[in-house]
Amino acid sequence: MAETARKQNDPHPLERLGTLLDSDMRAVNAIILGKMQSPVEIIPQLAGHLIAAGGKRIRPLLTLACTRLYGYEGDRPYRLAASVEFIHTATLLHDDVVDDSGERRGRPSANAVFGNLSSILVGDFLFSRAFQLMVDDGSLEVLRILSDASAIIAQGEVMQMMTTGNIKTTFEDYEEVVKAKTAALFAAACEIGPIIAGEDTEAASAMCEYGMNLGIAFQIADDVLDYSAQREKLGKTIGDDFREGKVTAPVLIALSEADDNERAFWARVLAGEEAQSESDLARAQAILAKHDACSKGMTLARTYADKALCALQAAPAGDLRNALADIAGFAVEREY
Amino acid sequence: MAETARKQNDPHPLERLGTLLDSDMRAVNAIILGKMQSPVEIIPQLAGHLIAAGGKRIRPLLTLACTRLYGYEGDRPYRLAASVEFIHTATLLHDDVVDDSGERRGRPSANAVFGNLSSILVGDFLFSRAFQLMVDDGSLEVLRILSDASAIIAQGEVMQMMTTGNIKTTFEDYEEVVKAKTAALFAAACEIGPIIAGEDTEAASAMCEYGMNLGIAFQIADDVLDYSAQREKLGKTIGDDFREGKVTAPVLIALSEADDNERAFWARVLAGEEAQSESDLARAQAILAKHDACSKGMTLARTYADKALCALQAAPAGDLRNALADIAGFAVEREY
Lengths: 336, 336
What we know:
Two copies of one chain form a homodimer.
Chain A: H1 13-20, H2 22-35, H3 42-52, H4 58-68, H5 76-99, H6 113-137, H7 140-163, H8 171-196, H9 201-225, H10 229-233, H11 240-244, H12 249-256, H13 260-271, H14 280-290, H15 293-312, H16 319-333
Helix pairs in contact in A: 1-16, 2-5, 3-6, 4-5, 4-8, 5-6, 5-7, 5-8, 7-8, 8-9, 9-15, 9-16, 12-15, 15-16
């Protein structure tokens, strides 16, 4: 699709969306900063560390874009966009504990226990704050969508834990995890836009569909890029999923074509019963290259980006719709 | 107060309240069992383990009692009582991770890491479920009260973490922790009763006041009983707070009268920089006995139980009010 093609010199699609929504995002950031305050000092310190560190703020941008897309001009999306970001930040904090627990897979712990405790509790605090923000807004429909998404995210995280290290994981299991742990919040962030704007359920469903497919595309692409030699060249960390034993798209593609040796390799390195050696990641990359697993994974991600673009056709045409389309392209064209 | 006196042969006040609210509690339990289900098997397993194990179900009982007290006869308190119990269970699950982290204070970990991950994520799931139940009910006022309480609980847990092992903790710090981590949810569980029953804010404030003071009384009594020789005789575990380095009421009372030796003892055993020895708990009990710290702690707890009884005077007289009064008595008269 022509809309997804992006020239090297174009500004980053997320930055372009950020520019279109600049004053809106300032208002959201002010709420984020204000609402992470607490008389308990360590809470704003820890939350601020994570939130100020930035991240792409893609979820609040989606909420803003999907509200403005339908012509609503008021302040309502600000609190709700902040709420979506808090839910995301809370899950990140709890993920850190999960991923960095340090007693799993024989790696030294990156988080001191003090850090772990803080991560759990500050996550709980931000999660509560997210609901306070929704209550401030007062829409039970939005509360329904975001509380449902929160329950699904938690289920997705548990499912991911159950599939970690298990090479019998099916593609269906994997897609279910991706939908639940990542795409459900993308979908909810988008779906509430038309609802805030007072649109009918058809518009909300279309944006939900866009967000869901965008989220799946993003996550699959992320999972592929975790093994990317190109990303490694850019000085970025790779192999996090590999070290954590996550069974992701590229691994599943390679497993579907694996000979006995390769299957034994994946079973050994992902199960985490013995420590991985220095050369294991390089061997994993070589096996993935042999099966062309990364480009096949990206092709799969692209089918979801295309579905996202298709759902987007239902939205009013204009700069914002174009920017949202570019993000779907970016999700699967990026090299980092 | 005569209302608080309890004869040895009386049935347990919580059981008596449970009997008064028997059919209501069955309905609440059915919702709890139904809503902890998930296609992800480990979720109902883990949640069921904790929830079925029982506990006293005091919070949902309070919500039911404070609703029926005002003559409301419909089904609305069921979902909300279940929601309150889910919030409590979620915080317990996260507490387990915090308290049993095993890298702190040199004790071996009681939770395998798999258990820790599960505890965090299943806690998140139950917390989300709690909000789904509130959304099902549809009262923004109730959503406000319980989301506020949730944020306060998380802050209280962080505060507790900050005071752990620190003998410079003041009584004000301690009371703030107790209010936030325990009493806020007792208060919210009670406050929503009159709101469900359609009462005015005065009734809600009175029940909030009752719950808050009851919660403080319960927690202080719990903290005293953690050092109780009587409880030890009954075969119950004691010394959990001591091993975790928590600075609680009996310790603060003993610290306020401590000589240099005793102060050095508390600093050493609570700071957790070196492992406690076998005899440390016995020495702690001896120091507490010397300063009469446990009975002074119980006296303090009793002042809060009395405040709870006082607030209760605003509620309609009858069996339920009497039962709630007995619970305030029980909170501070129990030996286990």
